[in-house]
Amino acid sequence: MRHDRIKPIERGERTDFHACPIDRSAGFSTGRPYADSMSDATAIADRSEVPAGGSHRFTAEDAFGNETEVILVPCEEDPGVRAWVNNCTHEDQRFDTGRGAAIRDGEIICPRHGSMFDACSGECDNGEASGTALPGVEIAVEDDTVLLTDEHYDYLHDGGVNDGDDGPGSTSHVSF
Fold this sequence. Notes:
The protein is 0% helix and 29% strand. With 176 residues, the protein is mainly β. The protein has a domain at 43-158: Rieske [2Fe-2S] iron-sulphur domain (Rieske Iron-sulfur Protein, 3-layer Sandwich). The strands form three sheets. A four-stranded antiparallel β-sheet has the order 1-2-10-9, with no helix packed on it. Strands 5-4-3-11 form a four-stranded antiparallel β-sheet, with no helix packed on it. It has a three-stranded antiparallel β-sheet with strand order 6-7-8, with no helix packed on it. A hairpin with a 6-residue loop joins strand 7 and strand 8 (116-118). It is globular. The chain starts with 13 loop residues before the first strand and ends in an 18-residue tail after the last strand. The model is unreliable at 1-8 and 15-38 (pLDDT under 50).
């Protein structure tokens, strides 16, 4: 296998880095995943697409064929990004409905009841969801590219499952 010839990895492309060299001659910068790296990972986004005070949302499919929304959020711990299922543990409420999740002081804020989840650990210690933790999705960051490495999910597309939902209904008690 020649490592001096690389091909770009497109968003959503699933690859086994050990068996699939990347072609540097294709005009791609070297700031991308390359051979001898993570195996069987899917490129989701560049780290720059995860805003400091918000989230990057994508849809993945679980082993049962269910579409699940996942959000990438900034975290002060390495690798600088975490991935969580895009739902509050208290009620069926999405954090990011298409405008980015509300994040303040390193915490993801539920728009329905105001419970706050640590962006790095997923744990909640206040509000209706106190004592719970968000379901995590395994990712890795290599050369500023966020890779989906969780064997329980397959990347489907950017954005949500149903982008027609505008967020919390009339029961929302939180305003920003």
